[in-house]
Amino acid sequence: MAAPRQLPARVSGIMVPAAIQDLEALRALTALFKEQRNRETAPRTIFQRVLDILKKSSHAVELACRDPSQADGLASSLQLITECFRCLRNACIECFVNQNSIRNLDAVCIAVDLIFLFRELRVEQEALLTAFRCGLQFLGNIASRNEASQSAVWLHAFPELFLSCLNHPDKKIVSYSSMILFTSLNSARMKDLEENLNIAINVVEAHYKQPESEWPFLIITDHFLKSPELVKAMYAKMSNQERVTLLDIIIAKVMADEPLTREEVPVYLSHAELFASTFVDQCRLVLKLTSEQYTDDEEALATIRLLDVLCEMSVHDDLLGYLQAYPGLLDRGVDLLRLIHVTGTDATNIFSACSYIKADSNVANMAEGFKSHLIRLIGNLCYKNRINQDKVNEMDAIHLILDNCRPDDRNPLGGVRHPEPDGRQQPKPGSDCQHGGAGAGRRVPPEENGLRGREEGRPAGSEVRSRRPSAVNQRSV
């Protein structure tokens, strides 16, 4: 490639400072590296020169961190650092040779150390943030599709860089650090996350604060959800708001058009065990909502979202059998429905507003939504399962459920047999209409039982995204 034009040392008889010459040369290189052919023909000596400038400028930052009085003269150094990172970032785009050359010059260590110094600087914010962002972009591009570079980034950046960047007030810094984490993670490094749960939880928090950012979402769906051990450890340590965020993402994943793969089924069976166990233990927390002072209780809201997850999981054949056999899940669901029914009847509270769930109702409030999903789960647990059908009869729950539903052909109890005096089992009234057939037990799709359907029930911001973020490439910061 053609070398960038070098500016003369003197212009019109005036000495040009070396920093300005370096800055102009770096800008020329950054522009050249936008072209693939220039990246592929770049000599290694150019990268050495760029790193020499970066190290010299980094020394000025280090001095300013030690002596705040030196910070006033940092503007030119920050400009050079920013352009060095832009140049190296562009050089790494889809160029394995350049990634290796730059990494072998110890650029990853230099960049990470400099980013750590940025946290201590007290200078003009925008100039510092621009250098910070470009440094993260460089780390993301050098690690892209390059295992050796990913290992180098992980060695130098984990865990400190992620701990400090994932909860940074600047949204771009959060996004770019998430990009680096996504690019560097693999199955072996997931073990490191289990020992640094705060990083994993910070990713969930980043998705909650920035649902429009693709990277935190993809870290959770493509990495975290593949590790039942990590999810279980995270869930135990999370706040209730963070749990709701994680559960929303799982709902979006389970509701996606693509079926679970053979490899995913055992993983989601483990997730089902965690959520069924938690629901059995904690489902009565939802009764706190009957008190006006707890109408926004986060613990109760997390319990509601647990039920949503179990409902969506019960739609999948691969997960349904496990949930049907889970000890105490059906019993606790029926008991809770009975408590809600009695509570709503005996007093004026949030559950009093929904005397029954209509087949065509648009679930508009939290109480109605919870009750409808509870009935839906009970119906699905009885689907083609004689043991659970008999258990519901033994618990005298048929009339309880009918009291909370309008008995029509889309009632969720199509799978529950009703005993007659002579011992024969009869289908419920209307179960032979339209979809069911006499005595046909089936799961209850939300569009057929009048409960919250998949589209209207999708949590805000939790849509499944098939689009993958592109590399940073030539984005200017």
UniProtKB/TrEMBL annotation:
PANTHER family, alphabetized: ATAXIN-10
Originating organism: Rousettus aegyptiacus (Egyptian fruit bat)
GO cellular component: cytosol
Pfam families: Atx10homo_assoc
Keywords (A to Z) from UniProt: Cell cycle, Cell division
Domain of life: Eukaryota
Renumbered residue ranges of the record's region Disordered: 409-477
GO BP term, example: neuron projection development
Annotated ranges, domain Ataxin-10: 370-413
Record flagged with keyword Cell division: yes
Bias (Basic and acidic residues): 409-425, 444-458
Name of the protein in question: Ataxin 10
